[in-house]
From TrEMBL:
<dbReference type="InterPro" id="IPR000709">
    <property type="entry name" value="Leu_Ile_Val-bd"/>
</dbReference>
<dbReference type="InterPro" id="IPR028082">
    <property type="entry name" value="Peripla_BP_I"/>
</dbReference>
<keyword id="KW-0029">Amino-acid transport</keyword>
<feature type="domain" description="Leucine-binding protein">
    <location>
        <begin position="36"/>
        <end position="383"/>
    </location>
</feature>
<feature type="signal peptide">
    <location>
        <begin position="1"/>
        <end position="33"/>
    </location>
</feature>
<dbReference type="GO" id="GO:0006865">
    <property type="term" value="P:amino acid transport"/>
</dbReference>
<keyword id="KW-0732">Signal</keyword>
<comment type="similarity">
    <text>Belongs to the leucine-binding protein family.</text>
</comment>
<keyword id="KW-0813">Transport</keyword>
<dbReference type="Pfam" id="PF13458">
    <property type="entry name" value="Peripla_BP_6"/>
</dbReference>
<protein>
    <submittedName>
        <fullName>Leucine-, isoleucine-, valine-, threonine-, and alanine-binding protein</fullName>
    </submittedName>
</protein>
<dbReference type="InterPro" id="IPR051010">
    <property type="entry name" value="BCAA_transport"/>
</dbReference>
<dbReference type="InterPro" id="IPR028081">
    <property type="entry name" value="Leu-bd"/>
</dbReference>
Amino acid sequence: MPQTAGSRGLRAAAVATFAALATITVPTGPSHAADPIRIGSVVSATGPASFLGDPEQKTLKLYVDQLNKKGGVLGRPIELVLYDDGGDANKARTFATRLIEDDKVVAMVGGTTTGTTMAMIPVFEDAKVPFISLAGAIEIVEPVRAYVFKTPHTDKTACQKIFEDMKARGLTKIGMISGTDGFGKSMRAQCLKVVGDYGITVAIDESYGPTDADMTPQLNKIKNTAGVQAVLNPGFGQGPAIVTRNYAQLGIGLPLYQSHGVASKSFVDLAGPAAEGVRLPAPALLIADKLADTDPQKAVVTEYKKSYETATGQPVSTFGGYGFDGIQILVKAIEQAKSTDSQKIRDAIEATKGYVGATGLYTMSPTDHLGLGTESFRMLEIRGGDWVPQEKK
């Protein structure tokens, strides 16, 4: 196929990014005389979604390094071919094509945002190569696509967990303010679909753009809407932190709920003291030290947290946990299939049963390419800059 100047420019950018990040192949021991198993990844390690993609990238590198030091998989090393799309959906699709056509990967773990994931899905579906996404929106796995899976809870599940908590607190009338990014729009739509199931009505529905720096006009409308008892903010990135700060500045004083899209220490740091009292659904990873010893996730999340924080010197985040579960599920599928054939790997991923991960307990099927329910979410409240479990309170 002839190359245009634009395509050559994109390819050059891809090569430059690839060279900067490099592939990860850590040969150790005689077992690594065999050809490596090539696994692809495209994450948003830089750009507006870097607080998601950076811990994903660090986790994937860390786990592959550990795996290769133990002898790899099927007696072969793992080679991680990793690209940074900077949060740009067009770049993500270009890198996805390169992973298939040039790098010849057997599977892919990545896709930091809903937008970049949706841009890459056709590439992996057409090539019949398994793609485990690390993004949130339900559209990634509903309707089910043969080769696409994901590890984060869906936005629909987050809505349900939040509304369960609101119902338990006797809240029946709320306001919403949502980001217009892919995740925010998707979660807003899912919340509006299920809110009536919990006897809750949305009295006012506002939104903000991804580059907006002040949401006080929208929040003032919510504040002045009669009967509103709580506010829900579907969104990710800096937007929810700005909403939280503006919310406190206006002295609204009603319970404020955020989504799992901000379940990281970076949100608490960005929002500052205004985050006090905010509730959100999140994986058990954020409260690893507070889990009961009998909790099935205790050992997994404690070990991952320790490994990540020791290796990076940074607090663990749920987003890195999505990457941890993605690469673990993939490696276990390769071991189960005893093959690097993409079709056999796909079948083994779909047959995942009872995998205890950092995000929850996964059981997938031909009709469910996520395998998590509301029970794998923990309702948390931010108190004193820390996460405090708030189940049914």
